[in-house]
């Protein structure tokens, strides 16, 4: 993949993210202002802030997006579905859900598929996109492949590396493995621990079609 990108082109790969539990309304507004300044793909926040973000981004090309089952993935399916629907009704354009990590590691692929499928159906019924966070720091290569395959079987639009709240974030090798597994059928989002333009471009070269970053200003200013 060509990684000779202008700053404006790179910005459209970025989901400008503020998922800090102590973020205030002022912090979230600042995140939106930064995203609009650079014309990023989106602003990714916890669902409480979606109404504020949707209003702040009105009339721009930057999308409000949110997370579901975050950051552990262990909430029940009905709760994840409700979270997703409510967030979309509040203005979210994309949903990043956390896979049930324990069931994936335990090899309960039928549960994993059903869990994702329920959220995918609800999200797609609203005409929106679903990304599935695998939390790759907990997984070996076989489990990463299984998570990608389960996500595709369940109708997800993207697979995503990490929440940014675990022991490690995105790794180039994991992104490459995810892209190899899903081919061009799904998007791949790398997130967590991407702090520089060089790191961002390496993820894109490995196959990422979207990046979740909080260091957007640093990445695009250099």
From TrEMBL:
Enzyme Commission number(s) of this protein: 4.1.2.4
Catalytic activity: 2-deoxy-D-ribose 5-phosphate = D-glyceraldehyde 3-phosphate + acetaldehyde
Catalytic residues identified in the record: 96, 160, 189
GO molecular function: deoxyribose-phosphate aldolase activity
Assigned keywords, A-Z: Cytoplasm, Lyase, Schiff base
InterPro entries for the chain: Aldolase_TIM, DeoC, DeoC/FbaB/LacD_aldolase, DeoC_typeI
Localization (cell): Cytoplasm
Pathway: Carbohydrate degradation; 2-deoxy-D-ribose 1-phosphate degradation; D-glyceraldehyde 3-phosphate and acetaldehyde from 2-deoxy-alpha-D-ribose 1-phosphate: step 2/2
Recorded GO CC terms: cytoplasm
Pfam annotation, one family: DeoC
Single Gene Ontology BP annotation: 2-deoxyribose 1-phosphate catabolic process
Superkingdom of origin: Bacteria
UniProt entry tagged with the keyword Manganese: no
Function: Catalyzes a reversible aldol reaction between acetaldehyde and D-glyceraldehyde 3-phosphate to generate 2-deoxy-D-ribose 5-phosphate.
Family: Belongs to the DeoC/FbaB aldolase family. DeoC type 1 subfamily.
PANTHER family linked to this entry: DEOXYRIBOSE-PHOSPHATE ALDOLASE
Protein name: Deoxyribose-phosphate aldolase
The species this protein was found in: Lentilactobacillus diolivorans DSM 14421
